[in-house]
Amino acid sequence: MKLRIFNIFIIAIITLTMCQSCEQDEEENEIKISSFNSTKSHNPGENCMNCHTSGGSGEGWFTIAGTVYDAAKNQTFPNATVSLFTGPGGTGVLKATIQVDKNGNFYTTEKIDFENGLYTSVEGNSNINYMNATTTGGQCNGCHGVSTDRIWTE
After folding, report:
1. 3-class state of residue 111 by DSSP
2. Who contacts 63 (Cβ-Cβ below 8 Å, separation ≥6)?
3. Residue 110: helix, strand or coil by DSSP?
4. Is the pLDDT of residue 5 over 80?
5. 96-113 pLDDT, tens per residue?
6. What is the DSSP letter of 102?
7. Can you name the residues that pair with 122 across neighbouring β-strands?
8. Is this prediction's pTM over 0.90?
9. How far is Cα of residue 18 from the mean position of the Cα atoms in its chain?
10. CA-to-CA distance for 48 and 139, rounded, in angstroms?
């Protein structure tokens, strides 16, 4: 009888452990993407991929992330839109559109294929700025605000 109770106890522990693992896997696989008026993001201007990458301490593995600023480039610009195209100046195929949140940040864990390079645009209230060169990665704040001008719109 004691052996049977022990076995039931072990089965219960294994079942609980498996259920918790399933929940963690679902959370890890959940798509994370910025949205207008959301305030879930943090650290504007920092390279998001320092933490939000494979093995990093941030929640989710971002494929693209960065911060948008106003025309003076000293305040973040909320609720803009970042788009990725296969051609320059908004031409070619639209590959992704990411909303900028209330903190001026944009990010997604959705798969984006940068293999052949993509052209980026950022759209504010009355302005669209196009990146003239292709990008082959989504670490926008790794260059913008460090070795190149900040991402901006108006």
Report:
1. coil
2. 108, 109, 110, 111, 112, 138
3. coil
4. no
5. 999 999 999 999 999 999
6. T
7. 82, 129
8. no
9. 29
10. 7
